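Section 5: illustrative case.
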């Protein structure tokens, strides 16, 4: 049997959320460190885009991949709330919001994986 893509995706998402929570905790731990700059990791969709497999045609009769299309992407710079006189750019409120986002996303990820697992077991049992 081949691997089921959803379980692998769920695992990678959980790993990414774990890494993001580590960075957020590091930011909170350094909230009073002079000169410390707030950090965050690349978004999950950006991470998946940079690690995806690209289609390659071995014959000119194969269909062209969609990677040649130009798409307008609008990027918004992350707004920093406050920089103190000590040069520290960590805002406790912003980091706690990020931590709440991570918790919510982790719960959603686990719920989807659990529902798919139940669906999979039901289909196997018949």
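Designed sequence:
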């Amino acid at each position: 049997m081949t691997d089921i893509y959803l379980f692998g995706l769920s695992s990678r998402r959980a790993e990414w959320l774990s890494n993001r929570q580590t960075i957020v905790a590091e930011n909170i731990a350094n909230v009073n460190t002079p000169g410390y700059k707030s950090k965050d990791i690349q978004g999950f969709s950006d991470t998946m885009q940079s690690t995806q497999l690209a289609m390659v045609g071995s014959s000119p009769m194969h269909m062209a991949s969609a990677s040649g299309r130009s798409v307008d992407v609008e990027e918004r710079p992350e707004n920093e709330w406050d920089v103190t006189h000590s040069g520290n750019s960590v805002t406790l409120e912003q980091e706690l919001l990020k931590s709440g986002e991570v918790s919510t996303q982790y719960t959603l990820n686990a719920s989807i994986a659990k529902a798919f697992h139940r669906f999979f077991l039901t289909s196997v049992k018949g």
